[in-house]
Specification:
Family: Belongs to the IspD/TarI cytidylyltransferase family. IspD subfamily.
Number of helices: 7
Pfam families: IspD (PF01128)
Radius of gyration: 18 Å
Distance between the termini: 31 Å
CATH superfamily: Spore Coat Polysaccharide Biosynthesis Protein SpsA, Chain A
CATH architecture: Alpha-Beta Complex
Number of domains: 1
Shape: globular
Enzyme class: transferase
EC number: 2.7.7.60
Organism: Dentiradicibacter hellwigii
Bound molecules: cytidine-5'-monophosphate
Number of strands: 11
Largest sheet: 7 strands, mixed
């Protein structure tokens, strides 16, 4: 079976107003999405790298992608949710893929994926009939916050934060009430799901078609269909850039791995 990558990058920037969509925010001299695409395109076991962009994407054409080689396939068929963008991307790839080919779905907002982690995923799942995902065993003690005062609504993620904003020292908004602990959640056996999530094309397409359009990752769709995806141990560096302060951390990691 062959391997294909699919990068959903059709976040339409609604939360950003007229600001730069997250996947195009400048990071280490490139648009954020370039970094993950670069790792995927350099992996010779991956035949083609599809990027799902929104139909009205005015940013993609503004950059030169030629350094990424000839396996890159931009498709302008993004949907209203991440899951819908993935479904549309799979449809756009359909002519190329056999049922047991692999699809690696990777977030544009995880720019610090490394070739080593990608190799680890490919190797761990090579003989698996279903697939799995990069994931990180939870290291911290976990607290559930009381719902009323504890909502994180006041914490601005990148979606609510202008690109040009001054660097923030922490993610606690000024004047916000720190929520109270409702309970401690045992972390035994808990993992944080990352991407790439790598599944057989036929299973992934069928599972996503049956899953609610709001599922936030591919593995949940496979789980709902009765499968048990494998958790492949990852590293903290493959985190999802979410808060403004995360950009500086991603820059540090990328600078250290050059
Ligand atoms: O917003 P969030 O970080 O969860 O988005 C995860 C990924 O899904 C991003 O790469 C984003 O561009 C993509 N996405 C998409 N289509 C949507 C919404 C998000 O491809 N409708």
């Amino acid at each position: 079976p062959r391997h294909f990558a699919l990068v959903p990058a059709a976040g339409n920037g609604v939360r950003l107003g007229s600001q730069t969509p997250k996947q195009y925010l400048p990071l280490a001299g490139r648009p954020m999405i370039w970094h993950a695409l670069s790792v995927l395109c350099r992996q010779t076991r991956i035949a083609q790298v599809y990027v799902v962009l929104s139909a009205g994407d005015a940013w993609w054409a503004g950059y030169d992608w030629s350094s990424l080689g000839d396996t890159l396939r931009p498709v302008f068929c993004g949907g209203a949710t991440r899951a819908e963008s993935v479904v549309n991307g799979l449809a756009a790839m359909a002519g190329e893929l056999a049922e047991d080919d692999w699809v690696l779905v990777h977030d544009a907002a995880r720019p610090c994926l490394s070739p080593i982690l990608l190799d680890a995923l490919l190797n761990a799942l090579a003989d698996d009939p279903v697939g799995g995902l990069l994931a990180l065993p939870v290291a911290d003690t976990l607290k559930r916050a009381h719902a009323e005062a504890g909502s994180l609504a006041g914490v601005a993620d990148l979606g609510g934060q202008p690109n040009q904003a001054a660097p923030r020292r922490c993610n606690m908004p000024h004047g916000a009430q720190a929520p109270r602990v409702a309970a401690t959640v045992t972390r035994d056996g808990l993992w944080q799901a990352q991407t790439p999530q790598m599944f057989r094309y036929g299973l992934l397409r069928t599972a996503l078609a049956a899953a609610p359009r709001g599922v936030t990752d591919e593995a949940s769709a496979l789980e709902m269909a009765g499968y048990q995806p494998r958790l492949v141990p990852s590293e903290l560096r493959n985190f999802k850039v979410t808060y403004p302060a995360d950009l500086a951390l991603a820059e540090l990691i990328l600078a250290g791995s050059r």
